[in-house]
Structure formats: C-alpha cells, structure tokens
Amino acid sequence: MIQKRRQFLKGGASLAVAPFLRSLQAQATGEAGSRPKRFVFVVKSSGIDKFNLVPDGLENRYVSPSNGRKLGNTARRLGPLVDVALSEHKLPEKLSRLEAFKDRLTIIQSLSGEGFSGNHTAGYGALSCHNSERVAIAPTIDCLLGQHLSTGPYPMYGMATNGRLLEGGSGLDESYCYPNISAYKAGMPVPFQSSPRKAFIELFGASVAPPEQLERELALNGNLMDFLAGDARRVEKQLSGDDKERFALYLNSFEALQEIEKKKVDLTDRIKKFAPKPSDHYDSLKPKHRIESYFELATSSLITGLTNVVTLRPDTLGVQYSELGISNSVHSLGHLDDGKATNGMTGHEARAAVEKLHLKGIAGMAEQLDRIPEGDGTMLDNTLIVYMSCSGGDHHGGQADWPFLLLGGMADKLRMGRYLEFPKYREKGHRTIGNLYLSLMQAAGMQATDTFGQLDSNLKDFDLTGLLSELMV
User: Fold this and answer.
1) Can you give the pLDDT at residue 125?
2) Which of 427, 392, 386, 434 is nearest to 410 (CA)?
3) For residue 173, what pLDDT is reported?
4) 345-346 and 340-342 strand pairing
5) pLDDT of residue 318
6) Segment holding 29, helix H or strand E
7) DSSP of 365-402, one letter per residue?
8) In this predicted structure, what is the pLDDT of residue 261?
9) What are the angstrom distances between the C-alpha of 418 and each of 4, 82, 144, 376, 423?
10) DSSP assignment of 297-324, as one string?
C-alpha cells in the first residue's frame, strides 16, 4: 500500500502535492515571491490589556493624565496617528520576552470592530468581521488564508482549550470542540482539537510509528476508505434533492480524509525529522502545560509542512492559571482593576502574567522558526504570528479599541519593527480590523478587495476601504 501510494504521488496524480513540491523548489532557489507563507493566530479570551503595550518614552493615551489610572474600555484619549520605530524605544515589560525580535515585531493599537459585539466575546466576528458571536455566517480570515496557502494535508489546523465557559463545572475536556472562532464558510465552523495527545497522534502519529505499523495502518485505512467511498457513491445514486446534497457532505469527508493521508506520505521523512517528542505535558490538564504543548505541536506542524495556517485558543473564561499563582479565573480577572486580586497581584498584574505565558509560547515558536533556513532568510521571515483576543474590550466592554501583536516577516510584505497607534474611534484617520485583515490577505498574495466583512454603520462618513498603508511595505 505504501509503495502504491508513493507511485501515485510520483505519477500524474501528484498534482495533489505539487504546490508543496514547488514551495520546496522555491525555497532552494531563493525565489522570494514563491516561498511558502504561513500564519499563526493566537486568540486569547477576555481582551488584551492595551495600556501596558505602549513602548517607553511615548505618551500613554490609555491612562488618565491626572492620576495615571487605566482608562479601561473607553479607548484611547484624543491624539493623532502614532507611527514610530521600536528600535528607538524600550519595549514595555510585558513584551520583554520578544526583545530579540524587536525588528520583526509590530504593535498595532486602536483598530475597531464595534459591530461585532458579544457578551464576553465577539465569537466568529473576531476573525470574520461579521456580527456572529455564536453562529458562523461567513468565512474567517484564518480559513481564507489557509485555503489560499494550502500546500499540505491541512489547509488550517486548530487547537483550543475545551472546558467551562465561566466558573464552575468540570475541568478541561479531551475532545474536539467548536470554540466559535474559525469557519470555512457560513454554517461550516472548524472543529479544534483540545487534547495535545490526540493532536499529536492525528498530526504525526502514523509517520513516526514503526514501519511495520505504518504499513498496516495505511493499508487498513486506505482499503477501508476506498471501500466506504465506493459504497457511498452507490448509495448516492439512489438519492435526490436535499438528501443528495446532505449526503454529498458525508461523502466528501471520506475523500478529504483519504487526501490527507496521501499527502502525509510525501511528508514522512520531514515529519520524522521535525516531529515533537511527546512528553507527560501532553496528558496534563494544567493550562500552562496544555498551552506549551499547543505551541510545540503548532510549530512542528508548520516546519513539517502539514499546514501553513494554525489557529490556537489558549484559554477560556473559566480557566484558572493556578500554576502562575492566580486563584481567580480568567473571567473573574476581567472584573478586577487595581485592587488586590490574587497572591498579592492586582488584576492588571495577573492579566499581564497570563499574557506573558502566551507570549513565551510565541517567542519559543519564533526562535524555532528562526533557526531553519529558508531562501535567503529563515522560516520566520515568511511567517506571521498574530496575537489577539476574541474581544476588543478588556472584558465586557465594546470593540472600539482592538490591540494586535504581529511577529515575523511575511517575505518583506509588511513593515515590521513598528508601533502603530491609530486615532480614536470615530476620529479622523481611524481604521478597523477589517483593514488589517485586508492587509494580511494582500501580504499572502490573495486577490485584493475593497472591504472585509460588515462595515460599521457608525463610521459611514469614513473611508473604510483598502489596506493599512502604514503597515504595508
């Protein structure tokens, strides 16, 4: 069976993996425009504190000028666009782990997505720019990029903490989940894997198994899929109308699984070289261990070519980071301000500790990608890691001020090493997250469009079309 599939891949049917092979050739020749491009979206719960993202030496418009207290969800104070080089300023303490990548880091503040409101989250709206907290009504940016950049088995792969939304109930679950983040199209949300152990088996298991076990699994899986697909087609001929349309989705699942397995065979050697070594952390229910495992798996997935787009949701509102000395849940921290929250930390300090854990994972991913040559640079130069939240406000607030951290290079398509702070919501020069996503699509080589998602009716007198020119090279 293995030999048969390898012959298939080397013959005319190798069109399935031709994009990946072309990307390897481009990597070897150094053709910048043809090198693979990759995206990683890390989407945390309960907002990102924006007041401690301002580099030293710049006016902090997210605190009160009279007493220095954080302004909360009222967005920044009035002021013009800020566009400065990070090289001229010390990074805020929260971002200290990214100091080595200052020239490939861009901080963006004050983009809005005010029309994508929810109770604690904008849901699918955070990545689709539609008002769709719980129901997918449009494709999300990660899936659009994944489908465009797909060269391997998975157009996009997602991992997410699956547990209680708020406090109470059971702990973390070990199963697929739908975190209301990503969707291929209306009515087709993306299932995320919550178990690091199961994700490892799904992504790398067959390729790192002993040869005799791999032979048996491929033979069994291949013959079974061939049989089921053929049997399904016989059934399909007996159906009509809506039944036939629904059954087509069922049939496509067999074909998709079969195609994934075929593509993995061509990557076997690379997977064996770069697959992670499973540890006890893969079975741990501690949030810190789970997040570390997600980043390790995601990094290896990119390096091996299993996917070019990964989306991670590291926590939910119900997660409690006890390993960080935090006794409150993420949800509870969102209600705390300057008062002592837990273990002597204020609410702001505890939230910063959570974000620093996520940023540690991002930095580790960047370090690994930066060690692998690609073209005349490294894999990191052709990858963009996006750190954001599923809610623009710190907690229950609106979406008038949505911060983003971008790390990587995207083949010199984006201006990195910058601090960009756009004018306040409803002020001249203000821009939206839709403009950012259009910029990411342009950097990925996608067909340019004027707008992305639903437009904000409160900004009808603004020009909401096009890219963020300040971000583009």
Assistant:
1) 94
2) 386
3) 63
4) antiparallel
5) 87
6) helix 18-29
7) HHHHHHTSEETTEEGGGGEEEEEEES-SSSSSS-SS-E
8) 74
9) 51, 10, 26, 23, 16
10) HHHHHHHHTSBSEEEEE---TT-B-GGG
Residues of the chain with pLDDT under 50: 1-23, 169-170, 224, 250
Torsion of CA 377, 383, 387, 390, to 10 degrees: 170
Residues 6+ apart with CB under 8 A from 375: 26, 27, 30, 31, 32, 35, 381, 382
Q: What is the pLDDT of residue 291?
A: 95
**Distance from chain centroid for Cα 238:** 42
Beta strands 38-44 and 309-313, pairing class = parallel
**Dist. CA 207–CA 330, nearest whole Å:** 37
> Which class would CATH give 34-198+267-459?
alpha beta
Q: How much is the pTM? A: 0.85
Per-residue pLDDT at 121: 86
Long-range contacts of 25-30 (CB under 8 A, 24+ apart): 26/375, 27/374, 27/375, 30/375, 30/376
CA distance 249 to 251: 5
pLDDT at 15: 34
- Per-residue pLDDT, 278: 87
Q: Taking each helix axis from N to C terminus, what angle separates 287-304 and 347-370, rounded to the nearest 10 degrees?
A: 30
**What pLDDT shows up at residue 211?**
56
Q: Are 113 and 125 in contact (CB under 8 A)?
A: yes
pLDDT at residue 408, rounded to an integer: 97
